[in-house]
């Protein structure tokens, strides 16, 4: 298995191009199940998760061609016999976001069978809200040998109050409601930019969706949708990760293409830490200078501080002056990076959902690994400021969500390489 080897101590200076957003690309690929014909996405990030979603679409019978630009074609005419309405356990267990095919398949074909994802490294992560919404729209939901089977000839519009503003749950229901009969209202909806992006693309396809980006989304169902061409928004979490790396190394980096309006909570905390952040024409510029101040963080649904940036900020807090308190409120088990950071010399105490970070430790390079994507990213950026050599193992987690992370960091001055192991 590959590993990333980092030698700490270099400032990051220059430009880092930000790739298309993973968490926008995954629902957009699923949305290509809705229209007939060929939908084309540009700025598709080259990530393992995107390849997994493409593989799933092919298993369902769709043609998927290309890499950075992806053309997705529905099975019609003689290809119609390839249509398969099942997402198997083998794929769903490697990527939970596979569940995003449920809404579109039921809306368009009247049924779907998707393996239940089960728990994962960061928490239990049920899909009850996805299913509750589909049931409210008239679907019959049954559980069978680890699979959830959902059936409904034509979904009917409904008012759905989500218990939690789930991101992929909201996306599944948006896609389902786009082709339902009548009006659907999703209350307590997720407000993440990726939900807005999906609504924008569905509207381009001919859907009638209002309110995406707010807590109440209204969808007037239509009878059919048309294929579109669309370029995917930049990845706010990739941008945020590099912003923290730039700050910690006292660097000066332009995050090319990043959108400051997607990063409000992250930018506010960087500024509180004493980092200079400015929106510029080409993206967002981040400059670290003097000492880093301690910052307290509570993860929340958007527009609150994103859970996907918690691990990276914890590393920043390790290098800060004073004590930071971090509360992880989205996932119950998202502190896998803590023991590994401890092995690098960090002083972090966890009690339930709260982590207390005593800053000012000198991080020292070590062999480390994590079982989740953002935790792995935090270990790479810890390596950038640690003394000596850090080896981050199990790089496949990073490859799920960061396109060529080592190349991008190397180009701005980091001493970093990928070592291939057979
Ligand atoms: N939840 C339920 N019931 C549900 C759905 C969710 O109780 O039916 C709970 C979850 O257990 C969790 C909370 O609601 O405690 C929020 O989970 P959410 O459903 O919003 O997460 P998700 O849709 O599975 C997406 C991202 C995650 C990101 C979270 C939170 C994608 C493909 N994934 O997951 O991204 O952490 O939203 O913002 O969009 C990552 O990129 O590293 C990543 C994990």
Number of helices: 14
- Proportion of β residues? 15-25%
Major sheet description: 4 strands, mixed
Structural class: alpha/beta
Any low-confidence stretches, pLDDT <50, length ≥5?
none
Number of strands: 24
Each distinct ligand: uridine-diphosphate-2(N-acetylglucosaminyl) butyric acid
CA-based shape: globular
Strand neighbour order, sheet with most strands? 22-23-1-24
- The level of helicity is 25-40%
Radius of gyration: 22 Å
Measured distance between first and last alpha carbons? 6 Å
**Subunit arrangement of the protein:** single chain
Overall pLDDT? 96
Please name the defining characteristics of this protein.
single chain; 422 residues; alpha/beta; 4-stranded mixed β-sheet; 14 helices; 24 strands; 24% strand; binds uridine-diphosphate-2(N-acetylglucosaminyl) butyric acid
